[in-house]
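The data are passed on as follows:
___
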Amino acid sequence: METLAERAERELSDILAQYTAGEAEVVREYFARPHTREEYLDILRRHMGRELFPVNKLAHAATLVPELERTVDRHRFADLLTGIAEEFGHYTLVADVAEWLLGRPLTPDEAREYEVFAAPYPGLPRERQYNPRLPDANAMLDLIWRYRDEDPSEFHTEVQRLTEGGGGAAFLEGGRLSGDEFRERYAAAMRAIAAEELDHGPHRVPGFVAKYVQTEADLARAASLLRELMAQHLRVRNEMFAYPLSPERLAAIDRGEIEPWPMTAATPAPAEQRA
């Protein structure tokens, strides 16, 4: 007979698989059509804007240094620095592809035009964390702020962590592209990002269940939060790729009208290793 933990892992993974498949579809639909260099640059810069925001945490990290090994745990401090470095590394990978495509360095305004916070950061006024060019990203920020205002619990934070990278399929799908130099460069960047994003999200489900799902009410709460977050994350991904999916298609994915993404899918091999 299936235990609560087993059912929780399955149900939460099913939600991730549903919306992760949607994020992969966004990427497939975008690249199924021809685009101009300017259109490619636009989606690259949209991606850059979402990866850049963790550098704002550096000022906070610096204030913690005097308290290391006193009130600040070294492991938590290492996790903070690692997270900042990883996200800025993703930003750098995408920016390098953009500059190759552009044939010159990006200006600061070009590089940061789509900068937006992917999660609330108490160290800055809320109004500075939004971007008027990105209504769906702003809506995601509003959603997470609402969670934190209504119930600033660890439970909410850990459910949110399951959604990081949207399950990773957008990067895995991008990592399969080939056919010209831009696609090869883009695919290499996406494979590098995917290797980290999969560890951030779906691979955390068993640990989350073991620690936080002790009752049926816990499972119902986690599933509701996860579904709401992933639905909005899908819309953020669609916005990042300049809306290849219609509102009707997004609603169909919400209803489960999509083949679930296999959550055990491995990161695709480099192009030179694929047939």
